[in-house]
Amino acid sequence: MSSATGPSSAVAKQEKNAEGSPVPSGEFRLTDTSGKPVSIESLDLPTLNGVKEQLQQRRQYLVESFQVLRGSLERYHRSKQSLAALSPATQGKDILLPLTTSLYVPAKLGNVKSVMVNIGTGYYVEQSVPAAGNYLNRRAKLVEDKLTQLQQQIQSLENQLKQVIMVMQQKIQQTMASSAPPPKGK
């Protein structure tokens, strides 16, 4: 039986830079509960399987976060397109105002000089069309930057998973080779 600080209690951790982003590298670090580094080659198969599952769960979470952010980015782009369609020529035009994604009511476009902007948590601010466009551009840039970070983290986790799986395959082959009966002589 191994102790609490032994290899069986290894935890997958990524090194982080000063900004808190993962350090891109071909290697990742495992540490035991006391923070001491552990080589993945020193881990037994059940522990490696646990590390693999932990990395897969983390990757799945990041992929889901990536998809949510991509949806947000698409909404910002659609909002910017809607803003671009506002002009003095469109004032008074008939429009369909969405109440939900599948329910609309007829309306007339009144004020085309300012819009209400959702700034989060149910708060809205009236802004001029150019100011709203600038706000949407800033928010879209923030989301794009976060998407880039997430994409790098996902790639790093995929590389780590490949390393763990490779070591697991090597250990399985070693186990099979050592348990195989010796060849019979003639």
Task: Kindly summarize this structure in a few lines.
With 186 residues, the protein is of the alpha+beta class.
Structure characterization notes:
The protein is of the alpha+beta class and 186 residues long. 49% of the residues lie in helices and 17% in strands. It contains 2 helices and 7 strands. A 3-stranded antiparallel beta sheet has the order 1-2-3. Helix 1 runs antiparallel to helix 2 (129-179). The longest helix is centred in the last third of the chain and has 51 residues, at 129-179.
> What helical percentage do the residues reach?
40-55%
Contiguous low-pLDDT stretches (5 residues minimum) are: 1-9, 14-19, 21-26
Strand neighbour order, sheet with most strands? 1-2-3
- Report the β-strand fraction as a percent range: 15-25%
Query: Average pLDDT value?
Result: 85
> What count of helical segments does DSSP give?
2
The computed structural class is alpha+beta
Estimate the global geometry from the Cα principal axes.
elongated
What is the N-to-C order of secondary-structure elements (H for helix, E for strand)? EEEHEEEEH
**N-C termini distance:** 43 Å
Strand element count: 7
CA radius of gyration is 27 Å
The major sheet is characterized as: 3 strands, antiparallel
Q: What tags apply to this protein structure?
A:
single chain; 17% strand; elongated; alpha+beta; 2 helices; 186 residues
